[in-house]
Amino acid sequence: MTDMRQADLRLPLYQQVRDALARDIANRVWKPGEAIPTEAELVGRFHTSIGTIRKAVDQLVADEMVERRQGKGTFIKPANFQSSLLRFFRFHDADGKYRIPEARILHREQLTPPPAIADSLQLPSGGQAIHLTRLRYLDREPLLAESIWLPATRFQALLAIPLPSFGDLLYPLYEDCCHQVVASARESLTAEAIAAPYAELLQLTPGTPAIVLERLAKAYDGSPLEWRSVRGRADKFRYQADIR
């Protein structure tokens, strides 16, 4: 476990404790869904008051790194991105039943990413990234084209995995094979006239209206893990929000 020797002594004590616990979470001392030590155990570990511990844990709760469960304790909050992307695109079969598209990795390579992506991933000058091209489809109809960039130093294990073994969900694979856990993400939506390379993947005419979703996914410590752009047909796009 992380000790307080890495703490910034200029910060309030509760913030030092919070940062120490956040480093442990980022280092997977406790996995998503597991309980962190009790308040009494943390008091003993950090040699501080229970009020300081509660304030530190309150900050982790506010940061959505942990969640309290009444009568059970405090647990590492698992991120749920399975339906995040697909909430914007609605896919149905002939009977009108909603379906989740399958996914297939088309191409994988390690290379120097474009400057904007390298900057988003906080790569050093000349830093390498793993690039995945992925297609989502239903009944062999291509629906979403994805361009995914990952820091090579963190995701080298992905280069040895057979492409058919990637499966439909990448984040569990990141955790199981590379010990990298996605904790949060920032997404943005734009529209464009789709360019030829993506139009070919989606079997569209270049210039067809498309929706572009960009996502920067981060670890528990805030470091960037994945930059992804997704293109889908505009006629499949749906946005819905509850306003109260």
From TrEMBL:
Residues 11-79 form the HTH gntR-type domain. Signal peptide: none annotated. Pfam families: GntR (PF00392), UTRA (PF07702). Coiled coil: none annotated. The keyword Cell inner membrane does not apply. PANTHER family: MANNOSYL-D-GLYCERATE TRANSPORT/METABOLISM SYSTEM REPRESSOR MNGR-RELATED (PTHR44846), MANNOSYL-D-GLYCERATE TRANSPORT_METABOLISM SYSTEM REPRESSOR MNGR-RELATED (PTHR44846:SF1). This is GntR family transcriptional regulator. The lineage of its organism: Bacteria, Pseudomonadati, Pseudomonadota, Betaproteobacteria, Neisseriales.
